[in-house]
Amino acid sequence: MRLLNSLSGRFLILTAVFVMLAEVLIFVPSVARFREDYLMAKLEKAQIASLALLANDTISPELQEELLQNAGVFNVVLRRNEARQLMLSSPMPSEIAMTFDLRDASAFELIKDAIACLMNNDPKVIRVIGEPAQMAGLLIEVTLESTPLRDAMIDYGLRILLLSAVISVVTAGLLFLAVRRFLGKPIQGVIDHMKAYAAAPEDARRIIQPSAGISELRDAEETLQTLQTELTSALRQKERLAQLGGAVAKVSHDLRNILTSAQLFTDRIEMSEDPKVRRLAPKLVNSITRAVNLCENTLAYGKAEEPSPTLNRFMLADIVNDVIDSERLAVGDSEVSFSVNIPYAMSVRADSEQLYRVISNLIRNARQAIVNTGKAGEINVSARENDEAWLIRVRDTGPGLPPRARENLFTPFRGGVTKGGTGLGLSIADELIRGHGGAISLEGTDETGTTFLIRLPKGDISTK
């Protein structure tokens, strides 16, 4: 049963069936041709028997009977010079039932007559008309019994069918061996490679090496090789991410303790009489608070307990201005300007800390890209809303994103643009926005700058 369900077994069965089908299609014309040859042979024997009478006008009844028996006919009629002459004759068991003219008979007529002869097993006498051999007259007629003809046709047909069966078995066997050799073994080799790879997908040595000579199978091997290579790379990357996550969790734990201690000093800073210090103290407090929250979230993420966004209403412009104020401190002497085009009364419903991180990542990437060019540039944050969502755009006049960054835009450790960057910023931003049910996308980038679009859906939350 296993053999029949295999590819080679199916080929074996189909080949035998198709060869038998072909032989059956050939069988009927072949039997028709055999019947024609059989009747033509009777005519030739009858003509040879009549030559004895032509050579000698009178022959004995015993010789005449012997000639007719050798020819296998009841009588022979030969037409010569427009005269129809009964050359040999003997008593017939019954009247003539059918007449067949082999002169200019079409293939269809021969096949039809052959089928009729096989289907009818009643004994009867038939007349056969043909042309004499060597042009010895105009025509020759013989009468004979149909039963010996039918028996001969059946015997011939059985031999043909037996031969067809032998040919089918031999052909199917050869094809079976060929399929096993040239197709079955390579496929089994691919299966073995897949099983070996599944046992240890991190082991690059188990990645299949294409070697098949059949183009289709080689394409399958090359596709499998690409898939296994990408999967092995992804597993290694996930392993590195897992290790990095553990390290980050430990660092975040210690950093949280340090930042918590730093919060204790902010009260003294706020009591400073320096106006500039008093003005910057709240921003320092907010930055430290955000850093502590980030460490706590990182610890939760390391435990596979990343919190869902806590949705609340707040003014979007306040968050954007906080980010820009922080970035202005990082600009230093660089000629990077910031602009905000957000209606002051526009409020959004989102997690304020997470949205701060998203916008901060986008603006920081834009600022670093402009600074790296050594030229002046501008970063603009704008927003609008419709009935379905809030739309936030972050535009810059930087050099645009390189092709590699576009292909791996939101992929950790692969979408970095600046030298030494990890590519985590956009990946984090994308994950946070998706947590809100929204999306962040690259709206456009070229040598004149880059634009990112953040879409935060309103859903069925009332805006009243």
From TrEMBL:
The record's annotation in Gene3D superfamilies points to: 1.10.287.130, Histidine kinase-like ATPase, C-terminal domain (3.30.565.10)
Keywords from the UniProt entry: Coiled coil, Kinase, Membrane, Phosphoprotein, Transferase, Transmembrane, Transmembrane helix, Two-component regulatory system
Q: Which residues cross the membrane?
A: 12-32, 156-179
A molecular-function term among this protein's GO annotations:
phosphorelay sensor kinase activity
For this protein, the Enzyme Commission number is 2.7.13.3
The Histidine kinase domain sits at 250-460
**Keyword Transferase in record:** yes
Q: Which residues form a coiled coil?
A: 217-244
Asked if the record carries the keyword Chaperone, the reply is no
User: SMART domains, from UniProt?
Assistant: HATPase_c, HisKA
Pfam families this protein is in? HATPase_c, HisKA
Name-wise, this protein is: histidine kinase
Q: Which reaction does it catalyse?
A: ATP + protein L-histidine = ADP + protein N-phospho-L-histidine
